[in-house]
Target: UDP-N-acetylglucosamine 1-carboxyvinyltransferase
Amino acid sequence: MVEIRSNTADYLEILGGESLKGTVEISGAKNSALPDMAATILTDETVVLENVPDLLDVFTMRSLLNHIGMEVDELRKGVFQFRLRDINSLEAPYELVSKMRASILVLGAVLTRFRYAKVALPGGCSIGTRPVDLHLEALKKMGARIKVEHGYIYAEAPGGLEGAEINFPKITVTGTENIMMAAVLAKGRTVINNAAREPEVVDLADMLKKMGADIEGEGTERIVINGVEKLSGTVHRIIPDRIEAGTFAILSALFDGNITIKNYPVEYLEYVHRVFERIGIKIIQIGENHIAVKREGRLKPVFVETKEYPYFPTDLQAQLMTLLTVVDGNSKITENIFENRFMHVPELQRLGAKIKIDGRTAYIKGVRRLTGAEVRATDLRASAAMVIAGLIAEGKTVIYDIYHLDRGYENIDQKLRMLGARITRESL
Ligand SMILES: CC(=O)N[C@H]1[C@@H](OP(=O)(O)OP(=O)(O)OC[C@H]2O[C@@H](n3ccc(=O)[nH]c3=O)[C@H](O)[C@@H]2O)O[C@H](CO)[C@@H](O)[C@@H]1O
Ligand SMILES: C=C(OP(=O)(O)O)C(=O)O
Model:
């Protein structure tokens, strides 16, 4: 893994309007790598993860695991070996948790295996308040004693966690993953109702089952877990990143389908493809997990709302909005998952986009073209939206604060340069 190469002073310069073409390969999914890495805490045996993307968030999770006492070795590019023999600390400190909300994923695993955990409260971020109350309520139902004090969650279960019936009032992805990890070593049976159905939840269940966990129903809204005494080591391959894949599919649609995409998880993007078809974008399979994107006539405006899997992902909302800014007619996007996920709108407006926001809905009136400007990457997917916008805009676009981008897109500037983009990384 590259020593952390992203720095808050880094920015991207893009000269837009170049025609992109070629083939790009999708990396392992950030949102699978992070829970799968946390799951290595659940055993004292060796776990090997393959197809691990080289991302800032993965680096942060690795630092967090190291802090706990995990030995982590990179066997070869993207292949990591994990072994937790001696505990160093049962604490996830603020310094690391503040860099990445997904650090909360270590709570369930540390608590169930070591009966105590202290994790800094992740707090809000630019896309919303993002509380973790549902994680904590569920762990309390499993017998944990929890207090939140001085910015830390203190959780203990001296006699071990016990299986329980968890009814999530709202679907939560990392909440489902946290409770699944807590339940695999708890006493008795845990039922998670209204569980998240995301492919990343299924991937985590697959990994845990290979380690000896007893789990049924992953991928449905009811997951049943029977606790076991002990889990063993395993070798597991991280699934491809459906959000990176969707991001490149949108880019390809904007470049007349001249970009083909390998390692593309068609099965995870069925609903997204239905939305694409309404716009006039068709995904064509040209090989196993290798696709091309075809535009069918003039692109058409749409109304889309974000919703939990299997529906349209909030993590592709900003990128789709960029596409719609140059689609003739009036489009509308409603963001149902996060209350503040339109931070990219003022930035897109700087590039000439015509967008109005009313509550959770953005009204987009297509313009002929965007024009380059200086913008800020306000969060991870907003950054991807800015990159797409910069590539189609006339002239030069400068994107500041791209450390957000490095949290979730492996080598994105390199991948784009290989497609012919004029994009350079500079530092202030
Ligand atoms: C590391 C990871 O996998 N991140 C993904 C995960 O985030 P994450 O798991 O944090 O998102 P959740 O599914 O938990 O959030 C969904 C909604 O529930 C709310 N909520 C959640 C937990 C809680 O205890 N209380 C509460 O009110 C959130 O504020 C949000 O409004 O799913 C999101 C929704 O698909 C994605 O955008 C993120 O990329
Ligand atoms: C919001 C995201 O990630 P996280 O939950 O890790 O902040 C994302 O991947 O778009």
Summary: The CA atoms of residues 104 and 122 lie 7 Å apart. The two ends are 24 Å apart (CA to CA). Residues 101-102, 315, 380-381, 408 surround phosphoenolpyruvate (ligand 2) (CB under 6 Å).
